[in-house]
Amino acid sequence: MENKNILIIGAKGFIGSHVTDHFKQICGYNIYECDVMVDYIANNYFQLDPVNADFQEIFEEVNPGICINCSGAANVPDSLVHPYRDFLLNTANVYKMLEAIRKHSPDCRFINLSSAAVYGNPVSLPVKETDMAKPVSPYGNHKLHAEMICDEFYRFFNIKTCSVRIFSAYGEGLTKQLFWDLGQKASKDKTISLFGTGNESRDFIYVKDIARIIELIIHKASFNAECFNIGNGIEISIKEVAELFLQLLKWDGTLSFKGSARKGDPSNWKADISKIKSLGYTSSYTIETGLKNYIEWLVEKKLV
Questions:
Q1: Is residue 114 packed enough to be buried (19+ CB in 10 Å), middle (13-18) or exposed (0-12)?
Q2: Is residue 10 part of a domain?
Q3: H or E stretch including 166?
Q4: Residue 253 domain-assigned (yes or no)
């Protein structure tokens, strides 16, 4: 009989909360949440020590059939200032999780949320999972190390793992990065100046689509330490997407670019999504629909 226990680590974070909500709506799964935040209401919730997380007891008690790791730091500039902290959260903790699986839940399938940051500045676009990884930040390097740890546990201990390289995620609950910054600046000023030239590009993916892809991976992936690009295969310039966001926000000020890039930020990204398409993925949200939903959330929460 298939083990229907799903453990979501980082369940209170931006992506983790959406993944949790998604699987709670699917009948038959037993959802267990794990994070550093206090929660006196949630059932099946485990609170972690943020400084020295110990996963042994959690895996022993839950014995999950699936573990989705949505935890870790997701801040490229901060990884340059606090690299050891970034390493502990993005790399060391993944080793701890997999060691707990090896000891207590060896049949558990492990999905590790990685990042397109492992690619650095791609030589050509769209970037494929088989392309060389050359991170340009400690964050990207630590995410790549975590993927290598997933491969280690698969090859030497037969633990079923896979990593998903998420491109530019956005959606309700995100309180940092481009769209959050635009919303905050637009609510205070009639002039906005952003880093870069505006010609930099990203491959945006709405957070609810990410949750759907993870469900597809659970049902159809081989879990042989393989990696999946998680994007939409659509390259869009920062200038174009910023103008669209501000238009949907009904902001009528002036947008400009400083011309200087931030250290650690790649220039252009576009994912080859052949692998997730082969699992049956098609996007349910255009960039315009996703941004409208995000703006509605910002307005509802009085954040703009």
A1: buried
A2: yes
A3: strand 160-166
A4: no
Write the pLDDT tens digit of every residue in 199-237: 999 999 999 999 999 999 999 999 999 999 999 999 999
63 assigned to some structural domain: yes
Q: Domain with 40 in it: what CATH number?
A: 3.40.50.720
Q: Which pLDDT does position 1 carry in this prediction? A: 66
Phi-psi region of 275 (alpha: psi -120 to 50; beta: other; left: phi over 0): alpha
Task: Please list, residue by residue across 54-65, b when 16 or more beta carbons sit within 10 angstroms of its beta carbon and e when fewer do.
Answer: ebeebbeebbbb
Q: What pLDDT digit, counting tens, does each position of 74-123 carry? A: 888 899 999 999 999 999 999 999 999 999 999 999 999 999 999 998 88
Domain holding 102, by residue range, is 5-171+205-233+269-283
Quickly list H helices, the chain.
Answer: 14-24, 56-62, 76-81, 83-87, 93-104, 138-157, 177-186, 207-220, 238-248, 274-278, 287-300
pLDDT of residue 263: 75
- State residue 26's pLDDT score: 93
Spatial contact of 16 and 71, defined as CB atoms under 8 Å apart: yes
Q: For the chain, how many residues are written?
A: 304
Structural domains counted in the chain:
1
In one-letter notation, the amino acid at residue 50 is P
Considering the chain, what percentage of its residues have pLDDT values greater than 70?
Answer: 100
Label residue 50 by pLDDT band (50, 70, 90).
Answer: confident
d(CA 130, CA 148): 14
Q: What sign does the dihedral 11-79-188-199 (CA atoms) show?
A: negative
d(C-alpha 177, C-alpha 99), whole Å:
33
In a domain, 133, yes or no: yes
